[in-house]
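C-alpha cells please, single chain.
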Amino acid sequence: MSEALSIDLTLEQIDDYEFRVRFDDTGLADLITDEPSPLGRDAGPNPTRLLAAAVANCLSASLLFALRKYKNDPGRIVTHAHATLERNAQGRLRVSHLAVELSMTGVAATLQHLDRLLAQFEDFCVVTESVRDGIAVDVVVRDGNGMQVHPVVSVG
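Here you go.
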C-alpha cells in the first residue's frame, strides 16, 4: 500500500448546533453547518446532507475525469442525490440508501470508450467506495483537563 495521506479540519461551535468548519492548512473558505429546525436554525447543511453531497460530488468528478481522460466533452454534468433515512433496530436514524443520478449534456454516441469508462469510474471515487466498504472510525474523547475519558484506557 502507498503512503497515507491526511486531511485536517477544525469545527468550532458558533451557537447551538451551528458550527464553523475550517479546512486547516488550506485557503478554502470556512463552511457553516447546522441542523435543520426545530433542533437547529438551518444556517447550513447538516452532516447527512454533506455525506450525500460528498458522494454525489465525488462521483461527478470521477465521471468527468474518466470522460476527459479519453478526450471526451461530456458537456455540463448535473447530479442529483437522494438519501433515504430509516430507523435502525435501536430507533436511531441512519442513512439506509443513497441514490445518485448523474446527467451530462454530451451525447453518448459521440463519446469515446464510454462502456469502458462507465465500467470503472466508480472505482476511482474515494468517498463513494469508502462509504460502500464502511469506514473505520476511532473516537477519542478528552475532558477539560485533557484526560482521555473515551475510550477508557486501562492502567496496569
